[in-house]
Amino acid sequence: MDSIPIILQHSGHWDDNSSYVNFQVCGLLIPTNCNYSNLVGMICNELNLQPQLTSMKIEYQVKDGYPPFNIVDDLQLMFYLKLKKREEDFIMYPLCLTTEIKNIQPRSFSTWSEITTDDLCVEVAHTEDVASNLFYENMEEGSKEIVASIKKWENKSIHYSKVH
């Protein structure tokens, strides 16, 4: 199976001149038959990202000052890979990754009578995914308050299910 060497620039941002700056770099070997989902998985594995907690934007630039192309599906990835295959200089057209922690909001109920068993299972499972220690330590204060309220709600939910 053929692979294409790709430079991945990450942990940076786009400046006002349409340049990706202040980044770190790593290399990936992308199979020529790679699909978008597999690419996201490879990036998550390489950078130790949790896809359910992280939104990512994968872009590349064909010329300085030119607006970046955004890769969001298989067709756009296929175009990028064809472009990379034609270019002998593997440093050309690096992927530029912008990540953001997803804003996960718990559902709220106005009364306990609105809560069903299914809701309890979904919310408890959801909070277990969200509130891992590593993720919690890297959160901003506002997000930590949300997780604390989820844990508080989870404790009430478990107590509620034991009582009824």
Overall description:
It contains five helices and seven strands, in the order ββββαββαβααα. With 164 residues, it is of the alpha+beta class. β2 (13-14) and β3 form a beta hairpin. α3 (117-130) packs antiparallel against α5 (141-163). The longest helix is centred in the last third of the chain and has 23 residues, at 141-163. It is globular, with a radius of gyration of 21 Å. The chain starts with a strand and ends with a helix. The model is unreliable at 117-132 and 157-164 (pLDDT under 50).
Low-pLDDT runs of 5+ residues are 117-132, 157-164
Q: Give the termini distance in whole angstroms.
A: 58 Å
Q: Which outline best applies?
A: globular
Can you write the helix and strand succession as a string? EEEEHEEHEHHH
What class do helices, strands and sheet pairing give?
alpha+beta
Average pLDDT score: 79
What's the total helix number?
5
Biggest sheet architecture: 5 strands, mixed
Strand order of the largest sheet: 4-1-7-5-6
Helical percentage: 40-55%
Radius of gyration: 21 Å
